[in-house]
Amino acid sequence: MKFSLRSESSKARATSAEQDRNRSVATTELEPNEATRAGVYLFAVVMFVVGFGVVFAATFAWLSVATVLCAVAAGVLCAACIRVAPQWERVTVLRFGRFHRVAGPGLYFLIPFAEYTAIHIDHRIMTSSFSAEAALTADLVPVDVDAILFWMVWDAQKACLEVENYPKAVLWSAQTAMRDAIGQLNLADLSLRRKQIDRELQEVMGAKCEQWGITVLSVEIRDIMVPRELQDALSKEAQATRERNARVILAEVEKDISEMYVEAAEVYEKNPSAMQLRAMNLAYEGAKDGKGILLAPSGLADGFDVSKLFKGE
Fold it and tell me: Which stretches of sequence are listed as region Disordered (predicted)?
């Protein structure tokens, strides 16, 4: 049973988060340090030029439209059959529709009209951001969770043959695993057990994606967002808890002080001289803090009677 408890503010935050992710992805795609496949395309152009030039030079004496078309066909055929793959890339080659081999990296050849490439697979570590929107916790609180998935393909054959679209399958599997993990925890435990959730997701995703030839390296939760109304309630609850703790500490301090006063009273009761010495100390402190002016009851002067002090009265 699924509940739709998201507020308008949470929808707006989700939209803003999605826009931020899109901007970050676009920025990442434009970074100059990212490796490109420009060399592959340049090699294909060179192969086309070589094939076209050889045939065109051989048939230049009988120059006609047919010879030009033959030269173009030779260039296209040469570019299609002689290819190159970057170091991080593997190419799945099919022969008459059946899996034949995994080619690359480097130079590889295709039999014309018999072999063709099914998919180019990147063997580098991939980073994919995903989110679980309005995921319900164990206490039925809707939260929006953003996370990053680090994964890589280690078997190009399985990634090509076992699943239709392996990047989409990995992301959907990650979203499902995230919702299952959140549904087993209360909202109070969600932030405290973030690292544990990361490890559990990595284990679940690793077991599921292993059959696709994919390894999940890690899952990291970036942000956990709750509705604004619930944020206010949690803030008030935290404030009330801190105020209660402060009052409890104050009461414990008062209790300790009262016990010390009781002990002091027992000492004063057993030894009157201690009480007189305390009175003299209080008078001295009062005179010092009051800049030489002392306002005290007349009975306080009895504390300065030295004869009574030594007589123990």
Answer: 1-29
